[in-house]
Structures are given as C-alpha cells and as structure tokens.
Amino acid sequence: MEKSIFTRIMEKEIPARIEYEDDKVIVIHDIAPKANVHLLIIPRKPIPTLMDVAEEDLPLIGHIHQVAQKLAQKLELKGFRLINNCGKEGGQEVFHIHYHLLSGFHE
Ligand code: AMP
Questions:
Q1: pLDDT tens, position by position, 8-17
Q2: Residue 47, domain CATH
Q3: Where is the active site (predicted)?
Q4: Contact 25/6 with Cβ under 8 angstroms?
Q5: What is the rounded radius of gyration, in angstroms, for the C-alpha atoms of the chain?
Q6: What pTM was computed for the model?
C-alpha cells in the first residue's frame, strides 16, 4: 500500500508543524486551518478509516482522547471539537485515520 501523506510526515519526508509526538501518535497543525487552533491527531499505525478500527486498536483510540485532553491543558483551550471524518461520504480526504481538534470559535 502506498504511504499516506501523514506517514511521510512522520518519517520526516515532508515538513509539518509538529505540536506533539509520542510512540503511538503525532500531532501536527493542519495546513488549511478551519479554526484558530486546528490540530490533527494521527496514530502512527496507518489504519485507513474508523471502520477499519479493530478491537485491538481500542486502547489507541483511548490514547487519542487522552492526548486531546493533554493538548487542551497545554494550550489552555477553554473547549474544543474532536472530529473524525470517515470515508468519502463523510468528507475524509486522507485515508490514514486522524482526528481534527478544533478550538477558538468564539475568541
Ligand atoms: P480529512 O478530510 O478528515 O481527511 O482531513 C485531512 C486534513 O489534512 C485536511 O484538513 C487537510 O487540510 C490536512 N492536510 C493535508 N495535507 C496536509 C499537510 N501536508 N500538513 C498538514 N495538514 C495537511
């Protein structure tokens, strides 16, 4: 399978503004932000869509939520949206699972 743009960012083939990384996820700033804060939380495991998440991946999905919490604390966000676009009909463009963390709609 061809490497996704997010895998290429993780492998530092393509530059990105990295906000956070650990052994399971990388968090980058979206290149076309839709809010004052627009981050992408991306697992290193290249799962194509939410529909491909297996039972063994559930701790990873929990970890993503924990990372969202930590980012909100670190960036002192008063609130945020955590969004996953699933499949073409769901508006997904990059088929490597990721969650959009958006904040700052009423600043
Ligand atoms: P989705 O539609 O949920 O698949 O979202 C893909 C997101 O990736 C979009 O919001 C894009 O703006 C963002 N994106 C695409 N390429 C890059 C890149 N090189 N660096 C950062 N964000 C990107």
A1: 999 999 999 9
A2: 3.30.428.10
A3: 98 (tele-amp-histidine intermediate)
A4: no
A5: 13
A6: 0.97
